[in-house]
Write the structure tokens for this entry.
Amino acid sequence: MPSEGTAPITGRCYCGHITLRAETAPETVTYCHCEDCRRLTGAPVAAFAAFPIGTVHLTPDPGPKTPRGPAVQRWFCPKCGSPMAAVFDYLPGQIYVPLGVLDQAAELPPQSHSHYKAHLPWLEIMDEIPRQTGSNRAALRAAAPGAEEG
Ligand SMILES: [Zn+2]
Ligand SMILES: [Zn+2]
């Protein structure tokens, strides 16, 4: 599991207009197989790094977060449209960054699969990490220091 106190995490969008800096290593990294994430990223499976909210900085400020449904807010690069970060009502206290925008993605292997039940039938990932058929909320929240159960 990534530990706190490692070098800051950095990243950028596709066009380079937005750069990202996180103050700490992610609390956890997870694949997400849900349809929303597939459509958002255009990829057969998405992966995200979860950071404590308030520790991820986007420069320049991409402006107000964009509501995409009642329970999620997302930030995009205003020039190229790359998804840069999201917060979910059901995962309070965390901000999720698409793993692919991070410069250190190679050193941040996912630790779980979320929404595995929704995975594309031809996609086979040979790993031994936990596969949650649904939202994986409990495991994701448990990764946050001081997180309350439930
Ligand atoms: Zn961009
Ligand atoms: Zn998802």
Remarks:
- The chain has one domain: 9-142.
- Residues 9-142 form a domain with the Metal Binding Protein, Guanine Nucleotide Exchange Factor; Chain A fold (CATH 2.170.150.70).
- The two ends are 22 Å apart (CA to CA).
